[in-house]
Amino acid sequence: MRVLHLHSGNMYGGVETLLATLVREAGAVPGMSSDVALCFPGRLEAELEAASRPPFMLPPMRLSRLHTLLRTRHALRRLLREQPFDAVVCHQSWACVAFGPVVRAAGFPVVLWVHMPVESGALLDRLARRVRPDLAICNSQFTQSRVREWLPGIETEVVYYPVQPIPAVTIDRHAVRQALQTPPDDVVVVMASRMEAWKGHRVLLAALERMCAVPGWTCWIVGGAQSPDEAAYERELRSAARVFGLEARIRFTGQRADVRSLLAAADLYCQPNTAPEAFGIVFVEALYAGLPVITSGIGGPLEILDRECGSFVPPGDAHALQEVLRALVRDGDARQRMGQAARRRPASFCDLATDMRRLQRVLATSRPAKSAALEAHAG
Fold this sequence. Notes:
The two termini are 29 Å apart. The chain has 379 residues and is of the alpha/beta class. The chain has helices at 14-24, 43-50, 66-82, 92-105, 123-131, 141-150, 173-179, 201-209, 228-243, 259-264, 281-288, 301-304, 318-330, 332-344, 352-366, 370-376; strands spanning 2-7, 33-38, 56-57, 87-91, 111-114, 135-138, 155-158, 187-192, 217-222, 250-254, 268-271, 293-296, 310-313. The chain is globular and about 65 Å long. Strands 3-2-1-4-5-6-7 form a seven-stranded parallel beta sheet, sandwiched between helices. Strands 10-9-8-11-12-13 form a six-stranded parallel beta sheet, sandwiched between helices. Strand 9, helix 9 (228-243) and strand 10 (250-254) form a beta-alpha-beta unit.
């Protein structure tokens, strides 16, 4: 089965990590290969080229500019005629709106992969609902519950992200810490995410302010701005760190391609979301690195973590967060126990080969043949 994944490509986060994994790890499921078509160059394009599976680049497109939409749809129409794909997947509402009609006209079922909670009243989600996908793939049961409200009557399937285990190689923790000006014996609290307010950076800083008198910890905030709004938000966070007197304890690392090395050199993962995370690849990566995880008790992380490897706090509650952080910073034995449980946890729900085989089955059985989609939507 040859699958074409349609996406924008101008940002880098969980969706892009997933697509890169599907391409790089195709050998885990010999019967399925993945290609990607993008509208914008960026880090994902470079990663796919490095994996010797460069993406198909469609013309840049904005939905608000009809001539660019028509031009890009024409390019996709030609691609679907020229290449022997067996299934096509639209990632997020943007791709569904832009490409769903072309995919259906070419005789394929419209498969929408939903990666984040649907926003009530959002224009793109309303337009995607009009496209009426044939199948919605959801990255968690939480996302599935939202999709069933948004797209009643549409077939839904949950496919957890296939996450590649961290290779069993020795990370030079001292070198990583030295590069980030971190004492070798400090307990490192790490957060790696997009620079978006709902990820909870402000809550983390407020909790850490209450721990200024607690010795022996440093916090790494990993991630860089990918848009003007994110750049403004990052400036706010840096200013808040100064106001809170945390400059000596916080390291803003910027955008990094070695996040897994940073996780392996840290001691705790903390991401106190103020809104639900649909899934969260970084939580799984933190588990593979043997890190106890602290996050808000909402959304997809409730399916990823259990009480043996994770701690949940109420969203936005900096006081509750600092209590959990303070206890784990001081208790090395508890960190070790939770870290051991963390390494075992992913195998129970997020095995790379298992999830890729599930994706293959879902795509293979969504419709028996392209002609079925044409017949169902004739006229």
